[in-house]
Automatic annotation (TrEMBL):
The keyword Signal applies. The keyword ATP-binding does not apply. SMART domains: Germane. This is Sporulation protein. Residues 95-184, 246-335 form the GerMN domain. Residues 1-20 form the signal peptide. Keywords: Signal. Residues 336-355 are annotated as: Disordered. It comes from Mangrovibacillus cuniculi. Pfam families: Germane.
């Protein structure tokens, strides 16, 4: 897999953290992790239950009264499907409301971050009903008017937006009441049991070679926006024979995204693990060399590096929080002041900044 090491962008990202809020670590409020998180790999779900949040974490997940914070998966200017968090009005059918907000020209219009667009064609009408753990989505005829090149984006966006809700594991699509076995414009097949997060997201062409002895994992890279940087989930593949998937995921982040992509990584040159990651009671401990540090004297880590590690590794079953060490000694903080004395948990929502 062709990779690029992000040497030139490191200094840019490091300085921009003081100016551009990416929205993951924005305040000094504590985080409450999801009470129940569903991890889907190869179409199968693994349930993990959130525990007490790290009291020193600084991720704000509280929505204003009368609203619910929801991730909507939008299309970026570079053609990636990216979660953006919005405080939507509280209602009886949160899943249907989320898809209503994905319609071009609908209520999302005045809320769209710069460089992002809605994924569903204008005037599309949506109905969402639950059948067990499957969300059954029926679209009006307008749904079939999207551009062929958007088909994968649309399928991923619908699937990942709906499966964030408790109890939704799979998604089935229909057009005017007729179940779809393939997408209506470019013919992407849809499995009989529907789609799930096991389908992946933002699959880059270079990630699709030699899948026989590999398995999919989701890692988070950065994309530059008008307001700073956002975190982009990307499905890549690691060896299915690996005895420690965390090691390979960290290595993917260190090597950075494919050279042909517009994504970037904030890992410093020369960074490496000095020992295998260990996990105990849901906490993954990562022991790096001094290359992980932005500042040797103050022993601080880039907040972008921390966020990418946290988001990527807590996608794995059984990992609920991470802690970072350098040569066996605890790292105390990030460059934006986030304390690392206690393990860092995953936020419920990604890219929660104001635009």
């Amino acid at each position: 897999m062709s990779k690029k090491r992000q040497v030139a962008v490191v200094s840019v990202l490091a300085s921009s953290v003081y100016l551009a809020g990416c929205g993951l670590f924005e305040s000094n409020e504590a985080i409450d992790p999801p009470q129940t998180v569903s991890y889907l790999e190869d179409g199968e779900a693994v349930e993990t239950t959130g525990e007490e949040a790290n009291p020193t974490s600084s991720i704000s997940t509280e929505a204003p009264e009368g609203s619910v914070r929801t991730d909507l998966f939008l299309i970026s200017a570079d053609g990636y499907v990216v979660p953006q968090s919005f405080d939507l009005p509280e209602g009886e059918n949160a899943a249907q409301q989320a898809l209503d907000y994905l319609v071009d020209g609908g209520p999302i219009t005045n809320l769209l971050p710069n460089g992002y667009r809605a994924v569903l064609p204008a005037d599309t009408e949506v109905t969402v009903k639950m059948d067990g753990e499957t969300a059954v989505v029926d679209f009006s005829n307008e749904f079939a008017t999207y551009a062929p090149e958007d088909e994968q984006h649309i399928l991923q966006s619908i699937t990942w937006t709906l499966t964030q809700f408790d109890g939704v594991k799979n998604v089935k699509l229909s057009l005017n009441g007729e179940e779809l076995t393939e997408m209506p414009v470019d013919g992407t097949p849809i499995a009989a049991n529907g789609t799930s997060r096991g389908m992946g997201i933002n699959l880059l062409a270079s990630d699709l070679v030699d899948i026989t002895n590999t398995k999919p994992v989701v890692v988070y890279y950065l994309t530059q926006t008008a307001g700073g940087y956002d975190y982009v989930p990307v499905t890549t593949r690691i060896s299915s024979e690996s005895t420690n998937a965390s090691t390979e995921i960290v290595q993917e982040l260190i090597e950075g995204p494919a050279f042909t992509s517009s994504l970037v990584s904030d890992f410093m040159p020369g960074v490496a693990l000095v020992s295998e990651p260990t996990i105990a009671d849901g906490t993954l401990t990562l022991n790096f060399n001094e290359g992980i540090l932005m500042n040797m004297e103050d022993r601080i880590v880039s907040s972008h590096t921390l966020n990418a590690l946290t988001l990527s590794l807590t996608e794995q079953p059984g990992i609920e929080r991470i802690t970072i060490q350098v040569n066996g000694e605890m790292v105390e903080a990030t460059d934006d002041g986030t304390s690392l004395i206690s393990p860092v948990t995953r936020p419920e929502n990604v890219n929660t900044g104001s635009y």
